[in-house]
């Protein structure tokens, strides 16, 4: 494939930079622009994004032609400048890397012609049939307010060969609302990700530029995408996050609860027995918890939080970033009653559960620590959870807490049941 465009020369072109060569849309160039060899570039980013892999670059002024090669960057979206680097591709402001020439390598007759009045530089890029590896963008989408779609996210979605969406209808609506050109989109959700991952990985290896999005917020956080990201990383492919909206962080920063030590648990088990058991496992942790829940189960879940984590403050965020955004904060039973009194709960909810009231305010003595560990061991709490609880409640390091828990656990095993004799 071939793409051609033109640039203007300029009297200040010096072309003395030994590492880069640059073509810019800017019509002017200062004495310091030693890498610039063409101004007022007419390049079309949409045409350039169709090129793949290694390209041959021809720079021509009149009958003078200079040729070099470079490897196109899969990260290129759009830029006023096309930067060719002798070194490896950078994720920002690089059009191509591994270039076999920089500005300083240009023929001096060619450079002299670029400084003449009215000089025109003709640029031709020709790609070979061996595309380089592609890129997987992991892109955050709005959780309620479409205005939260970032300019960078818009550029990525416009540049992607294919968008992998949890819900294609919802994504197409977002694209239309954002004024994006109709994207090529395919479903990628929990039910099909295992079967679809191999095909998408093959496309990435062949040079595809894929964008992964969920229904709302940041992919992989209680959403599909992990299998593809893991496969891409293991294959040595570039995985590029495009950060943005996150229900977890949105609820956390508005909760007024400590954000110094946070555990994201996502959705809890659906059955009450399993949910209570899971919450009981979390009870020893001196950390703020972030949970997700559907509107149909939020009242039951708050009842279980009140039962298993009674001495904690909760904050429930609902309709976040939307017109009816609301945050309710207080004891679990109080928040539950306020939600119930408002009628049917609408919209997904994010629940932030603060650390135990007064946790960590006073160091425990040796006897108290031992009693805490023995009690948790008796309740069959997992060893890692006990270690974390001891570490949070005492000045002990993680290794010291671990040794203490192991010593008490193994000692309890050695003691065995009491022997009353014959």
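^ structure tokens above, recovered residues below v
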């Amino acid at each position: 494939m071939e793409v051609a465009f033109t640039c203007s020369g300029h009297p200040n072109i010096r072309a003395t930079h030994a590492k880069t060569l640059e073509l810019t849309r800017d019509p002017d160039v200062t004495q310091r622009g030693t890498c610039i060899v063409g101004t007022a570039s007419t390049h079309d980013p949409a045409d350039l994004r169709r090129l793949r892999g290694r390209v041959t670059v021809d720079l021509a002024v009149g009958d003078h032609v200079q040729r070099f090669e470079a490897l196109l960057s899969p990260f290129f979206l759009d830029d006023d400048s096309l930067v060719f680097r002798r070194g490896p591709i950078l994720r920002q402001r690089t059009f191509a890397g591994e270039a076999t020439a920089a500005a300083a390598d240009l023929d001096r007759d060619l450079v002299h012609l670029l400084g003449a009045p009215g000089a025109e530089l003709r640029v031709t890029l020709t790609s070979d049939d061996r595309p380089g590896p592609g890129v997987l963008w992991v892109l955050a989408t709005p959780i309620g307010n479409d205005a939260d779609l970032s300019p960078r996210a818009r550029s990525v979605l416009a540049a992607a060969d294919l968008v992998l969406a949890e819900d294609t209808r919802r994504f197409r609506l977002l694209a239309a609302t954002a004024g994006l050109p109709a994207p090529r989109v395919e479903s990628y959700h929990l039910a099909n990700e295992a079967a679809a991952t191999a095909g998408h990985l093959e496309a990435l290896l062949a040079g595809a530029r894929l964008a992964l999005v969920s229904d709302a917020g940041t992919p992989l956080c209680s959403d599909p995408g992990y299998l593809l990201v893991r496969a891409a990383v293991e294959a040595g492919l570039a995985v590029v996050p495009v950060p943005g909206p996150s229900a977890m962080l949105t609820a956390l920063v508005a909760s007024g609860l400590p954000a110094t030590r946070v555990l994201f648990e996502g959705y809890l088990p659906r059955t009450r027995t399993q949910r209570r058991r899971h919450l009981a496992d979390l009870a020893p942790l001196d950390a703020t918890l972030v949970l997700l829940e559907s509107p149909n189960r939020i009242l039951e879940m708050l009842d279980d939080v009140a039962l298993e984590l009674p001495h904690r403050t909760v904050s429930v965020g609902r309709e976040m970033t939307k017109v009816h955004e609301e945050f309710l904060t207080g004891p679990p039973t109080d928040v539950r009653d306020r939600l119930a009194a408002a009628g049917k709960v609408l919209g997904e909810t994010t629940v932030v559960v603060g650390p135990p009231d007064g946790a960590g305010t006073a160091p425990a003595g040796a006897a108290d620590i031992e009693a805490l560990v023995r009690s948790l061991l008796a309740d069959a709490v997992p060893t890692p959870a006990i270690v974390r609880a001891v570490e949070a409640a005492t000045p002990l390091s993680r290794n010291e807490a671990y040794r203490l828990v192991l010593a008490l656990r193994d000692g309890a095993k050695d003691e065995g049941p009491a022997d009353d004799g014959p």
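Residues 2-127 form a domain with the Jelly Rolls fold (CATH 2.60.120.630).
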